[in-house]
Write a structure and sequence with these properties.
The protein contains 14 helices and twelve strands. By secondary structure, it is of the alpha/beta class. Strand 8 and strand 9 form a beta hairpin. Helix 1 packs parallel to helix 8 and helix 4 packs antiparallel against helix 5.
Length: 363
């Protein structure tokens, strides 16, 4: 699972990406399309629950989970018609599972805005419209072939035709596909098209250092828009975060304190991106390590075990499960067991975010 960072040129995408992935590179040139090929990076997902567990289960190391990010070149008006190498960039977005849109919410005469003025809602509209136009083009190109196949009586093709038509009708109302409810079979029938406006989205408001909490008028516009469409907003000062990411741990803590931040804003961004991707974590804990593992929300216990090793899923017998609250209350796994609070779960158990597990399986 990976999320793509998108936005207009010069909104701070690459600065944000470099800070997130701790990429120490030269400052990106201040002109459109300085990112041509998409850069990929892995970013840790900070989880304070790991250290809460370690307080009661001493271990040699703590390993957070991670997610993959892709820095995609700036999109401009007309991208769906090939402007600014648009078709190439749009194809990169089709390959990701969620979109993180960076929206410029700062004024800086030294950083040119591609449209000539800072207007976050106009920026959002430009990106959304280009993605919708590209989706329409994809669906219109796919429809004739699917209709021909459907005429032969192919049931899957018939389902696909209906799904395509539903999507086109919805897009004709200028609404992204993430607002359209398709049943599971319909969604699967068009999954290979990588429809971009069907992907979940997270807005990142790139703010000035004087507005780290994102309460300024430009950010409030983004917040109000996101609330209407059921999306989240994370305020981040990409410039400051980039500087923080370059520091060693001691200097980083000092800079965070001076900025009035409990943690880098990127930590909140990584966690929110993780949620937008429909992911959650469970933990394993022992003397060697405490580790967070990634599963899809709704995963069963055998599927979660399979993330560690496929043999664990194939030979799954049962899972022993407790919560972070349990270890904090009873102070040790032994006392959790003695109190009868260690749950034994079978193959149908649906994992909860934050479960601490031991898996039993046949070799």
């Amino acid at each position: 699972m990976k999320a793509g960072i998108v936005g207009l040129p010069n909104v701070g995408k690459s600065t944000l990406f470099n800070a997130l992935t701790s990429t120490k590179s030269a400052q990106a040139a201040n002109y459109p399309f300085c990112t041509i090929e998409p850069n990929e990076g892995i970013v840790a997902v900070p989880d304070p629950r790991l250290l809460r567990i370690q307080k009661y289960i001493p271990t040699q190391r703590v390993v957070p989970t991670a997610l993959k990010l892709v820095d995609i070149a700036g999109i401009v008006k007309g991208a769906s018609e090939g402007q600014g190498l648009g078709n190439k960039f749009l194809s990169h977005i089709r390959e990701v599972d969620a979109i993180i849109q960076v929206v410029r919410c700062f004024e800086d005469p030294d950083v040119v805005h591609v449209a000539g003025t800072v207007n976050p809602l106009a920026d959002i509209e430009t990106i959304e419209m280009e993605l919708m136009l590209a989706d329409i083009q994809t669906l219109e190109n796919a429809l004739p072939k699917s209709e021909r196949t459907a005429k032969s009586g192919d049931k899957e093709a018939k389902l696909r035709v209906e799904a395509i038509k539903k999507c086109l009708e919805h897009l004709a109302t200028d609404q992204p596909l993430r607002k359209l409810q398709l049943d599971e079979e319909e969604a699967l029938s068009i999954e290979t098209y990588g429809l971009m406006t069907a992907k979940p989205i997270l807005y990142v408001a790139n703010v000035e250092e004087s507005d780290l909490e994102g309460q300024g008028p430009l950010v409030m516009q983004v917040r109000e828009f996101a609330e209407k469409v059921g999306a989240s907003v994370i305020p981040v000062c990409a410039k400051l975060e980039s500087e923080i990411a370059e520091l060693d741990e001691a200097d980083r803590a000092e800079m965070l304190e001076s900025a009035g931040l409990a943690e880098p804003a990127l930590a909140a961004l990584a966690r929110e991106a993780y949620k937008v991707l429909g992911l959650q974590s469970y933990f394993t804990a022992g003397e060697k390590e405490i580790r967070a593992w990634t599963v899809h929300a709704g995963a069963t216990a055998p599927q979660a075990a399979g993330v560690i090793h496929t043999d664990f899923e194939a030979g799954f017998i049962r899972a022993e499960v407790y919560s972070v609250a349990d270890i904090e209350h009873y102070k040790s796994e032994k006392e959790i067991r003695n109190a009868g609070k260690l749950r034994v779960e079978g193959k149908s158990y649906i994992m909860k975010d934050g479960d601490i597990c031991h898996f039993l399986f046949n070799n």
